[in-house]
Design goal:
It contains four helices and seven strands. The protein is of the alpha+beta class. Strands 1-3-2-6-7-5-4 form a seven-stranded mixed β-sheet. Helix 1 packs across helix 4 and helix 3 packs across helix 4.
Amino acid sequence: DARAIDIVVRDRDARGKLLYALAYLPKELGVSAQVLPRKRDRRARLRVLKDFRVDSAALEGELPCAVVAGKTDSKKLSLQLKSWMLGSEDAGESSVEMEIQGEKAASVAMLALESLFFNSRREVTFAPRFAEKSFNEGHERPRVIMVVPVTLS
């Protein structure tokens, strides 16, 4: 029984579709994903993990939340996430949320996650889930919850 698989994104436009595909998987699987370094072909890579649960303590409090639209600048978003998570020791959060509005926004979010991985030099683990509450009268949008474990090396 495999606990992890690696996915290589062959088409640049498919990045955002990965978030939706992961969000549609049953919650019972406890699926999450980690950003992996790119290989020489510069294709995006993810490791999908089974039975990885997001820390429930992190979900009980108010988490910083970025609302991502299709026109959001992925580099600025990445810098904001890094600031929230790795800012000062007092203000650093181990988890943040991103609310995603559409497939183009999901691609922007994936680019921001990759950039966060490269710039922070930390593991970036995220668990896409659909929001329980709808902000647009009956239309759900995926919520991405990320956990960045601090690793010493």
